[in-house]
Amino acid sequence: MSKRKPSRVHDTLIIGAGFGGLGAAIRLQQSGHQDFIILERSDRVGGTWRDNQYPGAACDIPSNLYSFSFAPNPDWSRTYSGAGEIFGYIKGLVEQFKLGPALRYQQDVTGLRFVEEQGYWEATTAAGDCWRARAVVMAAGGLANPGWPNINGRESFAGKVMHSARWDHDYDFSGKKVAVIGTGASAIQIVPELVKQAGQVKVFQRTAPWVLPRMDYASPDWARKLFAKAPRSQQLVRDALFWTHESVALAVIWNSPLTRVTERVASAHLARQVKDGWLRRQLTPHYTIGCKRVLISNDYYPALQQPNCKLITWPIDCINERGIRTAEGIEHQFDCIVFATGFDVQKTGTPFPVQGLGGRELAEEWQGGAQAYKSVNVSGYPNLHIIFGPNSGPGHNSALVYMEAQIDYAVQGIEALLRGDHAYLDVIPAVQTQHNLELQKRLARTNWNSGCKSWYLTADGFNATMYPGFATQYAQQLARFELADYRAVDRAAPAARRAAG
User: Fold this and answer.
1) Per its UniProt entry, what is the enzyme's top EC class, as one word (predicted)?
2) What is the reported pLDDT for 147?
3) What confidence score (pLDDT) does residue 44 get?
4) CATH number for the domain running over 9-145+346-500
5) What are the distances in angstroms from CA 460 to CA 281, 290, 291, 437, 464?
């Protein structure tokens, strides 16, 4: 496809129109910066919550905390809102903050390159467009692309195949024999819904998850009215939820006496809902809680005990045209296989080629595990700000608390660039190296690095995903953009190099 005429050089280019991209646009706008463009690969905003609309999809963080502090919603219908309601909230941000003129749809970025001589980034898209900007906010999202398991014969199945992140709402499950591969966060929401519709459901479990009860209630009308009339009351609820979740860090991030208490709560939840001793043993985890993602559900265990549902714990040997063969030699035949296998999280690469100073490739530098400075910036890739970059994952609190801190830090960096009229600001390599050395030392003492396999870790056990501390600590490190941590290159320098060349 031939390239169209490149855009003019904007101040900021935002890649992705999910929570991260729209949040960055709003905070730039509120800081007085209007010259930004948002590139979205789809025809709608929403990111993860646009794509994950499978039956039962919902957030496992209360809605009053899983929303932006600068854009409260007094009308959440439940404690834990469903995916449709969250998607509606995201779409509402576009209208509330009038972001429509900045959005460019069907702009799937295929490459990002820093043009050092000119001091700007250049993004190319599958549509043949070329966009330029002095700074980039990369908000493509870690949970954007479906993760498919490496199972022999996966593509040979002759029946219906779907992934939780690409749900086919037109498919009729009535009377069908359905396999669900995976027992993670999406699976435990999908299985109870499928059991209501399908003729038979078999759930293939590799590792039993820790599951805690879900305290979910409909929001009373009086509370919605109070939040609308007195926003401070909703902020107080948000604060209470924040500190409650913050305390959970003591149980799931580090191995402490509270870890044992939380494991006992989860075990009691299992014992209360599953009376059969053998099934209960199959569903009992054998690793420290927190090592993998902790799940919450009231209806997953009951669904597994329905007459039309069966838990399969034998490892999968292969998939063939008829169904799934397990390691003991039994072939299970299905009409449909649902892959509830999460996402292709970029722990050792990038969603598209990113080229920095001197032609260096970010994917090559991240082959052994992604690293950044405070999750947001990477040395050698000036003026590039990543939302949910390396080691920004929470294990206990709202992802949006972490995201807001990243966004505000990125906005500070962009302001420093524009206000100082610099060509670029680049993290000093030694600063980034020291930051990550300390980070990995802290991670070594967490439950995530305690020995189990999870999507938090690379194949060789490097934790490029999680932050080893409280949300308050994470936000504090990003509270102030320290110019001394960056190499500032004046705009005159690239011009002088061009003249010399």
Assistant:
1) oxidoreductase
2) 79
3) 95
4) 3.50.50.60
5) 29, 19, 16, 17, 11
Tokens, residue 272: 């209360």
Query: Nearest CA to 205 among 328, 344, 341?
Result: 341
Is 9-145+346-500's fold the same as 154-210+264-339's? Answer: yes
H or E, element range at 83 = helix 83-96
Per the CB < 8 A criterion, the answer to whether 406 and 392 are in contact is yes
How is the chain split into domains, by residue range? 9-145+346-500, 154-210+264-339
3-class state of residue 123 by DSSP: strand
* pLDDT tens by residue, 441-464: 999 999 999 888 887 888 888 999
Tell me if the pTM is above 0.85: yes
Q: What is the pLDDT of residue 3?
A: 60
Q: Per residue in 218-245, pLDDT tens?
A: 999 999 999 999 999 999 999 999 999 9
Position 144 scores a pLDDT of: 60
Number of Cβ atoms within 10 Å of the Cβ of 15:
30
CA dihedral in degrees (182, 186, 190, 191; nearest 10)?
Answer: 40
Tokens of 473: 């600590």
Please report, as a single letter, which amino acid is at residue 195: V
CA–CA dist 296, 292 (Å, integer): 13
- Cβ proximity of 425 and 373 under 8 Å: no
Q: Are 445 and 469 in contact (CB under 8 A)?
A: no
154-210+264-339 falls under which CATH superfamily?
FAD/NAD(P)-binding domain (3.50.50.60)
What is d(CA 18, CA 47) in angstroms, rounded to the nearest whole number?
A: 4
How many Cα atoms sit within 13 Å of 130 on the Cβ side? 14
Mean pLDDT in residue range 266-274: 98
DSSP code of residue 286:
-
User: pLDDT band at 497, cuts 50/70/90?
Assistant: low
Buried b / exposed e across 187-199, counting CB within 10 Å, b at 16+? bbbbbbbbbeebe
Four-point Cα dihedral 386, 391, 395, 399, nearest 10: -10
Contact 35, 10 (CB under 8 A): yes
The closest alpha carbon to 141, from 39, 261, 10, belongs to 39
